Amino acid sequence: MAIFVGSMTADAGAEEVAVVAPLWLNASETAEIVARSGGSIVASGGLTNVIIAQSDNPDFISALYRSGAWLVLDAVKLRGCFSV
Question: Which pTM was predicted?
Answer without folding.
Answer: 0.80
